[in-house]
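Pipeline run #58 for the internal structure catalog. This entry was flagged by the ingest filter as a single-chain record with no existing model, so it goes straight to prediction. Upstream metadata was stripped on purpose; only the residue string is passed forward. Reviewer on rotation: M.T. Logging verbosity set to normal.
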Amino acid sequence: MMASTYVFSGGTGGQWLISSIAACRGAGLAPAPALTIRPWEPGTADGAVHWRLLGTISNTRYATRDEMAGLRVRQEGLDRPQATHAALIPIRKSAAWWALAQDERRAIFEETSQHTAIGMEYLPAIARRLHHSRDLGEPFDFLTWFEFAPADEPAFDKLLARLRATREWDFVEREVDIRLVRAAPG
């Protein structure tokens, strides 16, 4: 059975080398040369790390049945051999966002900002997995993990620019953009 909670540890070693860490809004994260991602188990220690973020894969929120069906058809899985570049984007939204009712958040997320529709334009080249952190007491609400081939990084940058220009991002109070390259095996 696949674990649904993962720990992202920035430290001295890992399966991903960190090429940059940029604070887009609010406080950033400490520099670290590498990232380890692994299923989280209670009571396990990460050893010496610069930072640690925890996130749970949960049910899909805000998406309609048709949007979910479209994502399933077009989204490719993670760990594709050609996807040697990645990004981890931790985000925290404001109290004003969380004070909105679910239907109000959905209206901003999709009807106004077109979040899912924008993301679908970049499939299947850019694969992603969303981790929820808010209910875990973490410093971020979401950890979004993206993987893509090096040639698709300009498209990924365009995707981010489009999302960051939406009304939804008016509610983002902390965002960090961590770029990575898969470490050589062995």
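catalog note: DSSP finds five helices and eight strands in the chain.
catalog note: The domain at 5-40+52-57+64-182 is CATH 3.30.70.3420 (Alpha-Beta Plaits).
status: ready for reviewer M.T.
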